[in-house]
Amino acid sequence: MTVTASPVPILSDNYAWLLRDSSTGATAIVDPADAQPIIEAIEKAGGRLDMILLTHHHGDHIAGVDEVRARFNCPVVGAAADRHRLPALDQAVREGDTVRLGSAVGEVIETPGHTRGQINFFFPDGAVLLSGDTLFSLGCGRLIEGTPAEMFDSLRKLAALPGDTLVCCGHEYTESNARFALAVDPGNEALHDFVGRVEQLRAAGQPSVPSVLADELKANPFLLAPDVASLAAVRAKKDKF
Ligand SMILES: [Zn+2]
């Protein structure tokens, strides 16, 4: 009994995530911003959709929601704080709330920084984290609405999850994040190992994600930032990189 997560490549570099609870076959899609490829992926996986989960309100995460909802007639879950700018929500959630996918329970984690109302979902059964545009592989989201202090706290919450957590993020940014990470932390051996694995996956045409949280903790310059000022500095540097 476990939750599995598969990336569905959409738009130029986004990932929606198809979640499946193995014991019941219940299925969810995270951030379905492009209806057609997502409907095809769901049909290919058996044609069942029980729930749509949203991490935040940006168009490249929500644009396909209404079409996917109409096709499968399933509930939409998103942040209560952002319900005014999300598609109509059937379940509006906050920090500590849970969502049910078949027999699996997902925990809601509020992670402001990229946007004020950003949320992530963590399924302990399967150790699956849907990190939206908060935590990327070797990177973090730009601070479009939030402060460095908010992003620091958000990343600390994610860093406290189990080391084997699979980080399922919203974009394939890993190679460009890797170039920046190597520029600011050239002596980091774990980072070099990480980047080597990423290069192999991308050369084979595979997604670089999900990554493993324990690896991110040793290599991701935003998770390695020890305090708010350091995070603010590394984020500002990346914005100009
Ligand atoms: Zn975004």
Provide an overview of this structure:
This protein is of the alpha/beta class and 241 residues long. It has a single domain (3-239), classed as Metallo-beta-lactamase, Chain A (4-Layer Sandwich). 34% of the residues lie in helices and 25% in strands. The protein contains nine helices and 14 strands. The strands form three sheets. Strands 1-2-3-4-5-6 form a six-stranded mixed beta sheet, covered by helices on one side. The chain has a six-stranded mixed beta sheet with strand order 7-8-9-10-13-14. Strands 11-12 form a two-stranded antiparallel sheet. Helix 1 packs parallel to helix 3, helix 5 (174-184) runs antiparallel to helix 6 (189-203) and helix 6 (189-203) crosses helix 7 (213-219). It is globular. It starts with a strand and ends with a helix. The mean pLDDT is 98. Zinc ion is lined by residues 56, 58, 114, 133.
Summarize the structure.
This protein has 241 residues and is an alpha/beta fold. It has helices spanning 35-44, 59-62, 65-72, 148-159, 174-184, 189-203, 213-219, 221-224, 228-239, and strands spanning 3-10, 14-21, 27-30, 51-53, 76-79, 91-93, 98-101, 104-110, 119-123, 128-132, 135-136, 139-140, 166-169, 211-212. Strand 3, helix 1 (35-44) and strand 4 form a beta-alpha-beta unit.
